[in-house]
Amino acid sequence: MNALVTLAESLGIAYASGISLYATVTLVGLGERLGWIGPLPGALAPLGSPVVIGAAGALAVIEFLATLIPGVASAWETAHTVIRTPAAAALAMATAWHTDPVVVTLAALLGGGLALTTHLTKLGLRVAVDASPEPVSNGLVNVAELSVVAAMSYAVWHHPILALAAALALLALTMLLVRAVWRAIRSVFRGSAPSAPSDPS
Description:
The protein is mostly helical. It is built from eight helices and no strands. Helix 1 packs parallel to helix 8, helix 5 runs antiparallel to helix 6 and helix 7 runs antiparallel to helix 8.
Protein backbone atom coordinates (compact mmCIF):
# COMPACT_ATOMS: atom_id res chain seq x y z
CA MET A 1 0.00 0.00 0.00
CA ASN A 2 2.86 2.40 0.80
CA ALA A 3 4.40 1.76 -2.63
CA LEU A 4 1.04 2.49 -4.30
CA VAL A 5 0.65 5.73 -2.36
CA THR A 6 4.18 6.82 -3.24
CA LEU A 7 3.58 6.02 -6.90
CA ALA A 8 0.34 8.00 -6.83
CA GLU A 9 2.17 10.98 -5.31
CA SER A 10 4.86 10.70 -7.98
CA LEU A 11 2.35 10.62 -10.82
CA GLY A 12 0.34 13.44 -9.28
CA ILE A 13 3.31 15.79 -9.23
CA ALA A 14 4.24 14.66 -12.76
CA TYR A 15 0.73 15.48 -13.98
CA ALA A 16 0.86 18.95 -12.42
CA SER A 17 4.33 19.53 -13.90
CA GLY A 18 2.98 18.61 -17.33
CA ILE A 19 0.61 21.56 -17.01
CA SER A 20 3.10 24.02 -15.49
CA LEU A 21 6.48 22.92 -14.17
CA TYR A 22 7.33 26.29 -12.62
CA ALA A 23 3.98 26.77 -10.88
CA THR A 24 4.12 23.22 -9.52
CA VAL A 25 7.59 23.67 -8.02
CA THR A 26 6.59 27.06 -6.57
CA LEU A 27 3.34 25.87 -5.00
CA VAL A 28 4.73 22.62 -3.61
CA GLY A 29 7.70 24.48 -2.14
CA LEU A 30 5.47 27.14 -0.59
CA GLY A 31 3.09 24.51 0.74
CA GLU A 32 5.95 22.75 2.50
CA ARG A 33 7.37 25.94 4.00
CA LEU A 34 3.96 27.15 5.20
CA GLY A 35 3.12 23.78 6.71
CA TRP A 36 0.16 23.09 4.40
CA ILE A 37 1.76 19.80 3.39
CA GLY A 38 3.98 17.59 5.51
CA PRO A 39 7.72 17.16 5.01
CA LEU A 40 8.27 16.46 1.33
CA PRO A 41 9.09 12.81 0.59
CA GLY A 42 12.15 11.39 -1.09
CA ALA A 43 14.56 13.90 -2.55
CA LEU A 44 12.01 16.71 -2.93
CA ALA A 45 13.25 18.65 0.12
CA PRO A 46 15.14 21.25 -1.99
CA LEU A 47 11.81 22.47 -3.38
CA GLY A 48 11.23 24.15 -0.02
CA SER A 49 14.36 26.27 -0.38
CA PRO A 50 13.63 30.02 -0.66
CA VAL A 51 16.08 30.19 -3.58
CA VAL A 52 14.24 27.45 -5.50
CA ILE A 53 10.84 28.96 -4.67
CA GLY A 54 12.01 32.41 -5.78
CA ALA A 55 13.49 31.19 -9.07
CA ALA A 56 10.52 28.97 -9.89
CA GLY A 57 8.08 31.72 -8.89
CA ALA A 58 9.77 34.24 -11.19
CA LEU A 59 9.62 31.76 -14.07
CA ALA A 60 5.96 31.03 -13.29
CA VAL A 61 5.12 34.74 -13.52
CA ILE A 62 7.01 35.04 -16.82
CA GLU A 63 5.15 31.99 -18.13
CA PHE A 64 1.77 33.39 -17.06
CA LEU A 65 2.42 36.72 -18.80
CA ALA A 66 3.90 35.16 -21.93
CA THR A 67 0.96 32.81 -22.38
CA LEU A 68 -1.49 35.72 -22.28
CA ILE A 69 -0.25 36.78 -25.72
CA PRO A 70 -1.77 34.93 -28.70
CA GLY A 71 0.95 33.34 -30.79
CA VAL A 72 3.55 33.67 -28.06
CA ALA A 73 1.51 31.25 -25.93
CA SER A 74 1.72 28.49 -28.55
CA ALA A 75 5.43 29.12 -29.10
CA TRP A 76 6.10 28.98 -25.35
CA GLU A 77 4.19 25.73 -24.94
CA THR A 78 5.93 24.18 -27.95
CA ALA A 79 9.37 25.08 -26.60
CA HIS A 80 8.51 23.53 -23.23
CA THR A 81 7.84 20.13 -24.80
CA VAL A 82 11.53 19.34 -24.28
CA ILE A 83 11.60 20.83 -20.77
CA ARG A 84 8.52 19.65 -18.89
CA THR A 85 8.70 15.92 -19.65
CA PRO A 86 12.24 15.20 -18.35
CA ALA A 87 11.76 17.61 -15.44
CA ALA A 88 8.48 15.92 -14.48
CA ALA A 89 10.14 12.49 -14.69
CA ALA A 90 12.93 13.76 -12.42
CA LEU A 91 10.43 15.12 -9.89
CA ALA A 92 8.52 11.83 -9.96
CA MET A 93 11.78 9.96 -9.31
CA ALA A 94 12.68 12.33 -6.48
CA THR A 95 9.27 11.77 -4.88
CA ALA A 96 9.82 8.00 -4.81
CA TRP A 97 13.55 8.09 -4.09
CA HIS A 98 13.15 6.71 -0.55
CA THR A 99 11.36 3.54 -1.70
CA ASP A 100 12.21 0.39 -3.63
CA PRO A 101 14.24 0.99 -6.83
CA VAL A 102 11.48 -0.70 -8.83
CA VAL A 103 9.01 1.93 -7.64
CA VAL A 104 11.51 4.68 -8.45
CA THR A 105 11.91 3.32 -11.99
CA LEU A 106 8.14 3.03 -12.45
CA ALA A 107 7.70 6.58 -11.15
CA ALA A 108 10.18 7.90 -13.72
CA LEU A 109 8.71 5.96 -16.65
CA LEU A 110 5.04 6.50 -15.86
CA GLY A 111 5.59 10.06 -14.62
CA GLY A 112 7.41 11.07 -17.78
CA GLY A 113 4.72 9.49 -19.96
CA LEU A 114 1.89 11.11 -18.02
CA ALA A 115 3.59 14.51 -18.09
CA LEU A 116 4.17 14.26 -21.86
CA THR A 117 0.54 13.27 -22.48
CA THR A 118 -0.69 16.09 -20.27
CA HIS A 119 1.60 18.62 -21.92
CA LEU A 120 0.66 17.61 -25.47
CA THR A 121 -3.04 17.78 -24.58
CA LYS A 122 -2.50 21.24 -23.13
CA LEU A 123 -0.52 22.25 -26.23
CA GLY A 124 -3.38 21.16 -28.47
CA LEU A 125 -5.81 23.24 -26.42
CA ARG A 126 -3.49 26.24 -26.35
CA VAL A 127 -3.01 26.23 -30.14
CA ALA A 128 -6.78 26.01 -30.58
CA VAL A 129 -7.35 28.90 -28.16
CA ASP A 130 -4.68 30.93 -29.97
CA ALA A 131 -6.82 30.74 -33.10
CA SER A 132 -9.17 33.18 -31.35
CA PRO A 133 -8.11 36.82 -31.93
CA GLU A 134 -9.21 38.09 -28.50
CA PRO A 135 -6.91 37.81 -25.44
CA VAL A 136 -9.55 36.90 -22.86
CA SER A 137 -9.57 33.19 -23.67
CA ASN A 138 -5.83 32.87 -22.99
CA GLY A 139 -6.31 34.48 -19.59
CA LEU A 140 -9.17 32.14 -18.73
CA VAL A 141 -7.07 29.12 -19.71
CA ASN A 142 -4.18 30.39 -17.56
CA VAL A 143 -6.42 30.79 -14.51
CA ALA A 144 -7.96 27.34 -15.03
CA GLU A 145 -4.51 25.74 -15.35
CA LEU A 146 -3.20 27.41 -12.21
CA SER A 147 -6.30 26.32 -10.32
CA VAL A 148 -5.73 22.69 -11.32
CA VAL A 149 -2.02 22.86 -10.45
CA ALA A 150 -2.77 24.46 -7.06
CA ALA A 151 -5.39 21.84 -6.23
CA MET A 152 -3.12 18.97 -7.25
CA SER A 153 -0.09 20.44 -5.44
CA TYR A 154 -2.09 20.28 -2.21
CA ALA A 155 -4.37 17.26 -2.65
CA VAL A 156 -1.77 14.79 -3.89
CA TRP A 157 -0.04 14.79 -0.48
CA HIS A 158 -3.28 14.34 1.50
CA HIS A 159 -5.36 12.06 -0.75
CA PRO A 160 -2.87 10.82 -3.37
CA ILE A 161 -4.93 8.04 -4.95
CA LEU A 162 -8.12 10.10 -5.17
CA ALA A 163 -6.16 13.09 -6.48
CA LEU A 164 -4.51 10.99 -9.17
CA ALA A 165 -7.85 9.47 -10.19
CA ALA A 166 -9.34 12.96 -10.49
CA ALA A 167 -6.32 14.09 -12.52
CA LEU A 168 -6.65 11.20 -14.97
CA ALA A 169 -10.38 11.86 -15.36
CA LEU A 170 -9.71 15.55 -15.99
CA LEU A 171 -7.02 14.66 -18.53
CA ALA A 172 -9.48 12.45 -20.41
CA LEU A 173 -12.11 15.22 -20.38
CA THR A 174 -9.54 17.73 -21.62
CA MET A 175 -8.64 15.42 -24.51
CA LEU A 176 -12.31 15.26 -25.48
CA LEU A 177 -12.55 19.05 -25.20
CA VAL A 178 -9.51 19.56 -27.43
CA ARG A 179 -11.00 17.20 -30.01
CA ALA A 180 -14.34 19.03 -29.93
CA VAL A 181 -12.68 22.46 -30.22
CA TRP A 182 -10.58 21.41 -33.21
CA ARG A 183 -13.65 19.91 -34.90
CA ALA A 184 -15.50 23.18 -34.38
CA ILE A 185 -12.58 25.19 -35.81
CA ARG A 186 -12.44 22.93 -38.88
CA SER A 187 -16.19 23.31 -39.36
CA VAL A 188 -15.89 27.12 -39.23
CA PHE A 189 -13.11 27.16 -41.81
CA ARG A 190 -14.98 24.76 -44.08
CA GLY A 191 -18.10 26.88 -43.80
CA SER A 192 -16.19 30.07 -44.70
CA ALA A 193 -14.40 28.49 -47.67
CA PRO A 194 -15.70 29.86 -51.00
CA SER A 195 -17.92 27.42 -52.85
CA ALA A 196 -17.04 26.29 -56.36
CA PRO A 197 -18.75 28.28 -59.17
CA SER A 198 -21.79 26.56 -60.63
CA ASP A 199 -21.69 25.28 -64.21
CA PRO A 200 -23.72 27.71 -66.41
CA SER A 201 -24.53 25.02 -68.99
